[in-house]
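**Archive record**
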Amino acid sequence: MEAFTIENKTRYEFLTPVKISTWDKEKYIPFGTNNDAPSKFAQLSREVLAHKAVINRKTFYCSGTKFVTENPQLQDLILNINPLGVNDKTLKSVFKKNLKDDFIGGRGIFEVVTDSKFSFLNLLHADFTKFRLARDLKGMIYSPDWNEDWDKSKNVFMPFYGKGWLRDGKFLRSLVTTANYEPEFINSLPDWYAGLRSIIISGLTNEKNKKDLENGYFKNGILILDGVNDATAAKKVQDKINEDSGADSDNSGKILVGYQSGTGVGETKVPPKLIDFNNKMEGSYTELHKLSDEQIVRIHNWYLTLAGMNVSTGFDTNRINDEYRVALSTVIKPIQEEYLNLFKQIFNDFGYKADDLTIQNDNPVQPEVLKVTDNEVRKKVGLEMVDGGDEVMHELDIYKIWTNGTNNSGGSNNGSV
């Protein structure tokens, strides 16, 4: 099994499918070599900047603007789906947390809470790192700490919604989960998993930049000095260099000093020369970092402008909206539909008519609105002016004009104007 290390403290291993025979000793299906894959997924999202940025932005866009329904009872419910919550009282906030877990670890979990009379309905977000699939696949095992030293007798089995309820005092609880399909894996893998190497590389190049900053971008190389004729003189020069450069510090550059004897009569004096080890590496690290970040965006099935990444066209509102429209149809809406189907089923089960429940999505960049008269439009398309044509104003969506037409380098636009 191949593994990587960041700062010699965290290992990220390529997972292998768990054989059925290994389940027999536990009530749950372990995930990862030490049953810690979910926690490692979460840790990785915290340590790698580009990975975290894509997850955050993808979560923002996929969660939409708001849930919409014409049913007033359902509207009240989605605004108070978790009345005791602090930062997740609404369905939108619970949904957003579940999406984030889904994009980090490949699984989102929320909890359905009611009473024995089914007189109310609450939906709560559940931290995916605290759960493992039960061996019988009828629910999941909850543990506040999956460390080997934890008392496993305190683990709790929670059934899936529709498979039963966990009685907790006067409350009934069950789980609903979304999971990515991956051949050979019972446990769900995140979509980005095939890009693990790129994520590790991005983290390593970030770490190099951090060390360069800590080092004050000190040079690493060989300094050649002329005019040092014996060991005593060389030691004096070395001591002076160490004193001035802080060479005893962990954050200093690593300079090797080479000495050569002074020039003789008639010989040309040789100036000090530094052979910089960094010069040949800086370009490689920069390109490697850029390439790994772009690969991270692709493996997340996302888009550069929507991830907040720098692009050659700069802050291009047309490109942002274009990529958003593609993401909306290929990524955002399919994900939303999966969750909407789950929400509708649960709401209908509890007597809330939810067939019209949708998620509103708004363009990230609001289009510019241009006001024009009839005659201005007629002139644009080569028609004659008409009486009264300068009085009626029309509002035109500049973005729609641009995208409906054909823009080319010559500047012509065969749009709807």
Summary: The mean pLDDT is 78. The chain has ten helices and 16 strands. The first strand starts at residue 3 and ends at 6.
